[in-house]
């Protein structure tokens, strides 16, 4: 007789929210309660701030929290909290090293100081926990315990004793470690139920970049990899690494108009939902205005849109759009269009990806523009990471049915034009803009060189920015060498604003 085995269902573990939404998301709901966790990072990485947020969340939930400090005074902790606009009222702060403990009369002369002081420290922590009965404890920091123990075996035994003591009282504990021990100390990794690592990197220019990584978490399916962290007034924000496969949605694969019939024809029918289009060309050729014209068409259809502006200020963008009769100010005022002027030196890639995700999932944006990728590249430590992050972001947007436009500037004006990076393989469609010379005038041309969604035109058309926005002329069949910048002309095809008599 064969009996069928029922699928294993993991027991649901009660979770303790960390008070940081992004970190809770990385952990799949927070830290499992009743365990001891290690939070390690170099000085200045944000450990104290994270520990305070952990206890403030306990206070908000009506729980009791205890902050045990060996390295900072209670006044210093209150100053840190005050810098974020927080009050520690309702959070117990227990100082193990007081002014009396540092006095000459407290020094030992017969017994080894480490033996006496380590035992007194451990007993002091236990006494405070028994007296206050907290549900959450933050212990800051283990470097002091390590120095008192001096011997690795005694240090490990003391930590194990604290672990069993806290577990018996169902405490959720964060042990902070500043990693100042020489050669690294991995003893606690085997003892702790989970290990969280905070790192910070100082570049040659710009702010310190902070990251969080879950190094270990027993019995929890967490989001691995490196997650960007932002530390500012108000506390720590964690931006979970974007995984496109977690955000699939059903949508109708249809084409939408760019707002210009001739431009739609060049594209083979317009822009397709669930695809991205790369506008590529030299500076000043009209990439941004073309993208904004497509955005205005989406706004006029009643859609929401988000425009991420890395290269210029919003005032310059508004002035340009008004000169070309592109009415975006009204849509910005109504909230239908959100324009985000961003400083690439200040915005990390993970933070940017989360901004875009929130605009789509919470703000209802159906059209997204990133202008430009050149400036966004400066936010990355290398092009390899940019491509990986951009791949996930574009995959996410495509799976959400978003019309995405990317702007990429090229070096040079005519002739040999180059790019900082190659995003052609990530793009579903590529619209190529070029300058060319004719009759002593600097003209512009547009063509589509790739489309995964449409059977596009293979022609090269004249392109210009007029009072009504984007204008696209007929195919430049009488020109040879337009993409090279200096074409030869033979024939009678009129250019935009010209007659065939004028061209002859």
General description of the model:
- By secondary structure, this protein is α/β, with parallel strands linked by helices.
- It folds into 2 domains: 15-102 and 111-241, P-loop containing nucleotide triphosphate hydrolases (Rossmann fold, 3-Layer(aba) Sandwich); 246-503, Rossmann fold (3-Layer(aba) Sandwich).
- Helix content is 31%, strand content 27%.
- The protein contains 15 helices and 24 strands.
- The protein has a 9-stranded mixed beta sheet with strand order 5-4-6-7-3-8-9-10-11, sandwiched between helices. A 9-stranded mixed beta sheet has the order 16-15-17-18-14-19-20-21-22, with helices on both faces.
- A hairpin with a 7-residue loop joins strand 8 and strand 9 (209-217).
- The protein is elongated.
- The N and C termini lie far apart (94 Å).
- The model is unreliable at 99-116 and 499-504 (pLDDT under 50).
Give the number of DSSP strands. 24
Full CATH superfamily name of the largest domain: P-loop containing nucleotide triphosphate hydrolases
Structural class: alpha/beta
**CATH topology type of the largest domain:** Rossmann fold
Strand content: 25-35%
End-to-end gap: 94 Å
Count of runs of 4 or more consecutive helical residues: 15
Number of domains: 2
Mean pLDDT, rounded to whole units?
86
Low-confidence stretches: 99-116, 499-504
């Amino acid at each position: 007789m064969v009996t069928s085995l029922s699928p294993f269902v993991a027991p649901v573990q009660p979770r303790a929210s960390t008070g940081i939404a992004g970190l809770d998301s990385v952990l799949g709901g927070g830290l499992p309660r009743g365990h001891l966790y290690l939070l390690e990072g170099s000085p200045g990485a944000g450990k104290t701030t994270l520990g305070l947020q952990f206890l403030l969340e306990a206070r908000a939930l009506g729980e009791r929290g205890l902050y045990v400090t060996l390295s900072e005074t209670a006044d210093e902790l209150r100053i840190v909290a005050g810098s974020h606009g927080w009050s520690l009222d309702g959070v117990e702060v227990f100082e193990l090293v007081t002014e009396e403990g540092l006095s000459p009369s407290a020094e030992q002369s017969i017994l080894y100081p480490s033996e006496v002081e380590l035992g007194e420290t451990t007993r002091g922590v236990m006494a405070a926990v028994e007296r206050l009965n907290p549900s959450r404890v933050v212990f800051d920091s283990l470097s002091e315990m390590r120095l008192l123990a001096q011997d690795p075996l005694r240090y490990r035994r003391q930590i194990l004793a604290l672990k069993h003591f806290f577990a018996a009282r169902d405490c959720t504990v964060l042990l902070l470690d500043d990693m100042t021990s020489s050669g690294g100390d991995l003893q606690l990794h085997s003892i702790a139920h989970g290990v969280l690592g905070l790192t910070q990197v100082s570049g040659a220019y710009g702010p310190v970049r902070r990251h969080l990584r879950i190094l270990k978490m027993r019995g929890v399916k967490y989001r691995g990899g490196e997650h960007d962290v932002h530390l500012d007034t108000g506390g720590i924000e964690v931006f979970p690494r974007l995984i496109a496969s977690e955000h699939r949605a059903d949508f109708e694969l249809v084409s939408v108009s760019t707002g210009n019939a001739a431009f739609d024809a060049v594209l083979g029918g317009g822009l397709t939902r669930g695809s991205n289009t790369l506008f590529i060309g030299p500076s000043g050729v009209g990439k941004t205005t073309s993208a904004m014209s497509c955005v205005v068409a989406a706004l006029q259809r009643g859609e929401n849109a988000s425009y991420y502006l890395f290269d210029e200020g919003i005032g310059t963008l508004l002035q340009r759009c008004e000169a070309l009769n592109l009415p975006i100010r009204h849509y910005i005022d109504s909230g239908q269009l959100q324009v985000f002027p961003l400083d690439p030196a200040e915005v990390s890639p993970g933070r940017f990806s989360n901004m875009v995700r929130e605009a789509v999932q919470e703000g209802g944006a159906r059209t997204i523009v990133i202008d430009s990728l050149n400036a966004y590249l400066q936010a990355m430590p290398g092009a390899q990471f940019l491509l990986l992050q951009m791949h996930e972001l574009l995959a996410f947007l495509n799976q959400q049915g978003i019309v995405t436009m990317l702007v990429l500037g090229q070096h040079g004006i005519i002739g040999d034009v180059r790019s900082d990076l190659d995003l052609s393989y990530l793009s579903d469609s590529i619209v190529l803009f070029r300058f060319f010379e004719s009759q002593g005038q600097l003209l512009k041309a547009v063509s589509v060189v790739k489309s995964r969604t449409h059977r596009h035109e293979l022609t090269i058309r004249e392109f210009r920015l007029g009072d009504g926005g984007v204008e696209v002329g007929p195919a430049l069949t009488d020109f040879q060498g337009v993409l090279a910048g200096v074409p030869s002309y033979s024939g009678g095809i009129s250019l935009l604003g010209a007659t065939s008599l004028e061209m002859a």
